Amino acid sequence: MAAVGAPGVVALERIVGALKMLLSPGGSDSSSLQNTKHDVLLDTLKSNLSALDEKFKKDPEWKELKNLQDVIASGAEWLQNSMDVTWSFTSQLLVLLLCLKQSMILLAANFQPSEPNPRTAEAAPVLSPDTLSISQQKTVQSALQFVVTLGICPFLLPGVGIPLRRRTEFGAVIQDIVSFSAAPSAVHRLYTSCIVLLDVAKHVSLGSLILSHHLGDIAAGLCQLGFCPMKKKDELAKPLKEGLKEEERTQARKALQSILDQVYQPLVVRELIILQGGPQQTCSDVKAVPSARTPAWLRRLCGQLLSERLMRPHGVQAVVRGILEGAGAGAAGGAGAEAVAADWRKCDMVAKILASCPQQSLSLEDYYQQICPQILDLLHIRDKLVARQFQRVATTTFLTMTREHPQLAMKHLLQPMLEPVHRCSSTTELSAKQELLPGTIVVKEEELSCCLEDVFKVFVVGNEPGAALLESLRPVLGIIFSLYCFTRQNVSPLRSFCQEILLWMLEKLERKAALAALKGLAGLDKSMPSLHPLCEFRAASQGSTMVTIKETTSDEDEVLYQKVASEQGQMEFLVDLLSQRQECGLAGDFFVCCLEELTQIAVEKKDKIPPSPISPTSLLALEEYQSFLIEEQENKLLLLQMVAILCERMSETVFTSITQVVEFVAATLKRACVSLTQEAESSVEAQTLSMSMGLVAAILGGAVQLKSSDFDVLKKLVPLLEEVSCTYPEPVIQELAADLRITICTHGAFSTDAVSVAAQATMKKKEPRGDKMEGQLHSKSQRSSETDVVQTHSGQQPLCGKASYTESSSAAPPMPPQVQEVPRQQCLLAKNTASNQSPIGTTLEQFQEVLLSAYDPEIPTRAAALRTLSCWIEQRTPQALRTQEKLLKVFLENMEHEDTFVYLSAIQGVALLADVYPEEILPSLLAQYGNSTNKLPPETRMKVGEALMRIVRALGDMVSKYREPLIHTFLRGAKDPDGSHRASSLSNLGELCQRLHFLVGPVLHEVTSCLIAVAKTDPEAQVRQAAVHVVVLLLRGLSQKATEDVLDQAL
């Protein structure tokens, strides 16, 4: 802009002193009149200009500055002297700023710092001579403010930039003293001020002072110079009637593009938004003046420039920072950042901007292709001060794009985000280029962690369950669940992410889809994608998890063991997951779904036949058919196992509504009807049928406060109850089913005494329970660890209803004679129910009757009697404690029974009895367990071993008192001829060692020698695996101290 001559370097203090002389305030007295303020300001400007000229003429020390000023002024292409004092003042400031820039450049070029002296202490580096002090920076900043105020702002068109009148009171005074009629023209003054300031800004220090404070005004001036349509007929353009040359307009456009590319992009975005007509604040000291509307050409131009900022690399982050920092967040976040993060409207506005495709983009897909990776990057910002607001904007933008253009969002957002999980899916073929060696990393730790965190932020925190989001997450749900199961066995930061994602997905899916997803997670539906069979999760070095190629093993037994253990763990973890969302009722619906599947299994009379006949020569078809049968059998076993775990862990809380109870009863009635049609009625079906009818009677009898809508749900049972009343062989069940059907159809208006008595017997007390149905329908079922035992024990209650139903047929209030005709076990159960509520008041007659029932040929009666005796022992009933030897004999004899209901109840009774009298009971059990020459069958010895294991667990730390006889018995059992008994002994030995901790020390040598010998020489695989399992339990009992001691000895 200015030619640089030969004058020497001028001290910065001299140039800054000249600026300070120009900016010194005048000495005239101030007045409250507006015209006086104008005159005072004009007089001050004239006086300061004259004073500076006088200084140049008379003071020889200012000669160097005068020479430099003359050189700069002679090379200037603009008119410096004018009839308008404001422009003369502005021109002088511009020339001095150019002098300052020139001197700073020369000083920096001649600066040669001295070499540091290695013999002296290290000192701070010497400042460059072109560095401005704080006071000098303030003076230069004041000069820049005068240049912008007098040389740019007055010549901006209405609506372009922020008017001076809306800034300060002083700005309103300046607006009125500028003369537009004097030469040079307004457009040339604006052009000169903008171009010269940009020339001065080429110096780094001066550029930071100019662009950090005056970027908006300079950009507004350049926009007007380069893009404003110059129409003479426009009254607003009269001050600009002497237009610029095309070359000057082109230079203005290039200058605008240059500063927009060089300046900090968030600052550019903020200033462009203000120019476009963004929020503007007025000074409280100035009377509010309505601002002019932003011209259409400027709005279009700013929109185009903002779109260009957005389409640049890292443009999304620049736009977000520009908007949010301009809203008060600040570059460093802080309290303002928290306030903006809480303002969801601001984040929603930014998201709409990012989700809208600009006109400059080639196509919508091209825009998504450029923007979506940057949106995903916003989720990964680690700066805690701004991460929250950035992640909220990214999540809102993500959801907006997915909602408006789901296909493009699936391609450019969802698939890239979920790619690490898809990479290890069973539906994905592993790369042929990748060596599938054991331990090869398929998904890195950082990738998997980042993927799950992003899914959590978008899906769970965003909480907008759109169809596209649910469909995208469904294929990887099985992999996330497998990872959740892995983290449950380890310490991993990903556990909470996996858990929240799974719970959110199951909650937001439609109930039918959620049940299908649960079946897939439980392994009941093989169509759900899961972890690739060649991959496994492994703990990573940073404490998280990675996916690697797993090692293959040729030991089929080990593979089978791992498969069974994995399936068992997944089902248990799935039930634990469901227990955390009991209020939504998903667990109850899944339980009913599993029961309906059991009904379908009951319908199958025999295995499915193959689709085509098999010839003896078709070995391949025969093998496929056998595989099909094995898979069908595995599915049935998995289903039974799932029902068992649900009953065991959620028996008291599985149902949360009347509808679920009705569906459960309907499934039970259907299964009973199927058994009747197949003529395959069993005691189990009878028990479950009685239980379900007892539940219905309890609901109708007052256990729940019923509404009219509840009867509409109960009417689903009417056809099934009618079928039972017509086809079931027992008259008592037929009559009760008929009465229940009548009660439901009449909405409870007509109810027989049989229904009331059955309801009271089911609830185990006379008064109703009210609304608290949850957790009460199966309150006793948690005492058993087996599903069948649960069903048997629960089945006691409706049988009381059968007896009561017969009793109620008599009109006399006392107990009628018909009670004698009722089967003895039904009356017994009713009495046991009452006695369980008050154990201390158990009479000798009741005790003898229950003791006699323990030998009843009817399996339900015998199991119920054993359960009652166990309950009395647990509650320390005096009558039961006085006859411990007799009870032990009863339990031991019932342990030989082949039915699961009976011997499991007997095992439980023995364990409870030994917990009360361990010194009397343990020797007898150990003698029977360790004596291989007696007449006890191997199955009975195994049952005694199960009882010993329960006793060891119940004794806890007190088991150390009986360490010697227990260990010796188990070590002898490890040499038994029967392989099953050897495995049982080792299993009990491991359980004992885990409880003993370091107290196992005196016999540690004997134990380890036995384990080594068994692991090396035993011919059966299950025994060798049991020996290894003992080592695991032994180390688990010794905890971390064992490995520390071994390490100390090794060192």
UniProtKB/TrEMBL annotation:
The record's family statement is: Belongs to the Tango6 family.
Which Gene3D superfamilies did the record assign? Leucine-rich Repeat Variant
Name all RNA polymerase II assembly factor Rtp1 C-terminal domain ranges: 847-958
TANGO6 N-terminal domain ranges (all copies): 11-309
InterPro entries documented for this protein: ARM-like (IPR011989), ARM-type_fold (IPR016024), HEAT_TANGO6 (IPR057407), Rtp1_C1 (IPR019451), TANGO6/Rtp1 (IPR039600), TANGO6_N (IPR057347)
Which residue intervals make up region (Disordered)? 762-818
Chain ranges of the TANGO6 HEAT repeat domain: 310-583
Q: Output this protein's name.
A: Transport and golgi organization 6 homolog
Sequence intervals crossing the membrane: none
Matching entries from PANTHER family are given as: TRANSPORT AND GOLGI ORGANIZATION PROTEIN 6 FAMILY MEMBER, TRANSPORT AND GOLGI ORGANIZATION PROTEIN 6 HOMOLOG
| Compositionally biased residues, Polar residues | 778-797
What residue spans carry the Basic and acidic residues bias annotation? 764-777
